[in-house]
Each structure stands twice: as C-alpha cells, then as structure tokens.
Amino acid sequence: MAKTRKNRIKTYTLDPVLTNDQIKAREGTYFDAKDYLIIDHDADVWGKDPEAPGGKRLLAKFRKNVFSTDLTQQAWDAFYRLAAASRSRGAAAGPINPKSEYWKKRKLVNTNGWWAQYKDKKTNKTSKMRVNNTVFSSVVGYFEETPFMKLPCRLTNYTQTFFDEYKQGLPFIEAIDQEFKKLVPDAHKKQYQRIHSTPAYQIKNTAFSSITVNRNFRTALHQDAGDFKDGYGNLTVLERGKYHGGETLFPQFGVGFDLRSGDFIAMDVHQWHCNTAMFETPEDKQFNKTLEPIKYYKTKTGAMGSADPFTRISFVCYVREDLKDCKKGETDAYYKRIGFVNNS
After folding, report:
1. Could you tell me which of 80, 76, 94 has the C-alpha nearest to residue 303?
2. Minimal CA–CA distance to 243: which of 296, 332, 313, 187?
3. SS3 130
4. What tens-digit pLDDT sequence spans the chain (344 residues)?
5. CATH topology of domain 2-91+132-338
C-alpha cells in the first residue's frame, strides 16, 4: 500500500512475503526482480515487524537525482580505480560457479555453497583458506586491527595507495552524509556520536569510518556484518556506459530499488538484501561499443564482472563496529614506521 505526500514522496508499509526461516535458507543465493515491486521514485519504505516499535521498521529511504553531475564526475575521477579483486566477501559473492574463468583455472575441492578450497596445480596441495568467488570489492577509509597480519587499526592499504584520489573524493562522501542526516536524523546522530568518540578513525565531517566500494558486483543474499548495529548503510552508484538491472532487493518484503547514478538510499543493511543481474540490451551493446576501454581495468582477472564493457561502482558508507576498541598510539606508530602521513 502506498500513499503520496504533497512533495510526491510515496510511503510504503509492506508485509513480509517470506518468513525469517525461509529467507535465511536462501543466504548466498541470487534473486531476480520478477514479481517484485521495483521502486524508481522518491519513497520511504517500511516493513511490518511485530517486534519493532509501532509494529514496523524502516527498511529504506530512497531519493532520485540528489547529486549533481559535476559532483558525480568528481567522484568518478577519484574512485573508479578503488575496487580491487577480493576473494573474501562471503555469502554476498554468491554460489561457487565452477564454469567461471577464475575457477576453471583451479581444481576445486570441498565446495560448499559460497566457499571452496582448491588444489595447487604445481604442488597438488589443498589451499588452507576457504575462499569465495572473486569480485571487485574494497574497503576505503578505516579498518580495525587485523591480528593475523599484525596490523593495527589504520587507513586501509588501498586508501593509502590512492590517498590523493581518496581526498579528492571526500566532497562526494560528505554529500552522502548530508543526505543521510536529512533523511534519517536520529540514526545519523547515533552514528556520528559513535565514530566521533574515536575521531582518529572518522572520515572527516561525516558519520562514517569506512566505505565499501564495489565494481560490477552482483551481490547474493546477505546481511552486512561488522558495522555499527544501530547504524544504516548509505548507498549510491556511479556509472559509465549503459546497462539494465542491478536493482537492490529486499526479498523478504518483495521490494527493490532502481538505484542509478545521482540517486541515494539510506537502508537497513542488517535486513536481508542483494542485487539483480546487470545486463546489456542490444541498444546498450551498441552504445557501449563506442566507449574507450579503461586502461586500468584488467579483463582477464576472472573476477565477476571484469569483462563487462560498462561500469557500475557502488558505495556503501557506514561505521565499522570494532573501531571503538582502537588505540590511536598504535596507529600513529604504524604510520610512522611505514612513512605515511594521514592529512585527510
């Protein structure tokens, strides 16, 4: 059911179409947009939940065309290189596909849903790590202590490597923060206070510590983990070329959002969510043939989406929960040891 306000923002309050057990059983699998309500206009969406205050909880607030083309171009120039190949995205990376370019080069063993081990072709030894499909996904900004790598809380390696580009893109991140503050002020206040209590790990002038940057990554059903429990994920995308699909779905409530360049969504990332497949129509293919290849992008990595001629870069801005335990002295000593100056 939807009602239209004077400012044309529709409000939806939706019943779940899957039980908690039913949706949990689909973790790590893909959904498509068939039979779902796909929202492509300004909307506030609530899900009925008898355990929530008032019997409902906010799923998302979605707004179209809130970022200018000048700002999104500045963001593209800053961030288009910042999604590196990753094999550790868990259920979000989707079911292991033995026919993919990456896995065809390896001898799979112990495949289980969204993770697998493999044998080294030279030594015939089984890998110790359980890995996922390779996707383009990196954390930009701050990350908590990583004991097995003997690293303290810090700016991530990719952020350090592209530090000038990161700083160039901060006005875009600040604009995302302002939309969050405008649409969900109570959650923004909690999130800002949480990260501002450890300002050495705060992205300046925002309620964020970190940004997950994905490229051409169709996520399978998952819930975000490792972020502030009372916070929200704040999403937007940048695009180059033409494509269809890529909608952000909340399958338990039968709803999705057509998030495109310039749009914004503040969403409860602790609810089950995923993306639909991205694809080209014949018209898209004709247009994309006119694009100059991006020299930085390597198409033979075997990572999902690496061969696509179009680009969809998604941003998820949030606070990492474990940063509350960080020790600034250890971080400063680490920066000094590696010769890095954090002047962001």
Report:
1. 94
2. 313
3. coil
4. 443 444 689 999 999 999 999 999 999 999 999 989 999 999 999 999 999 999 999 999 999 999 999 999 999 999 999 999 888 898 999 998 888 888 888 888 888 889 888 887 778 888 888 888 889 999 999 999 999 889 999 999 999 999 999 999 999 999 999 999 999 999 999 999 999 999 999 999 999 999 999 999 999 999 998 899 999 999 999 999 999 999 999 999 999 999 999 999 999 999 999 999 999 999 999 999 999 988 766 666 678 888 899 999 999 999 999 999 999 999 999 999 999 999 99
5. Double-stranded beta-helix (3.60.130)
Asked if 117 and 157 touch (Cβ cutoff 8 Å), the reply is no
In one-letter notation, the amino acid at residue 39 is: I
pTM: predicted TM-score of the whole model, two decimal places: 0.93
Which DSSP category does 148 fall into? G
Q: Which two tokens stand for residue 172?
A: 């875009």
d(CA 245, CA 262) in angstroms, rounded, equals 16
User: Is residue 133 exposed (0-12), middle (13-18) or buried (19+ Cβ within 10 Å)?
Assistant: buried
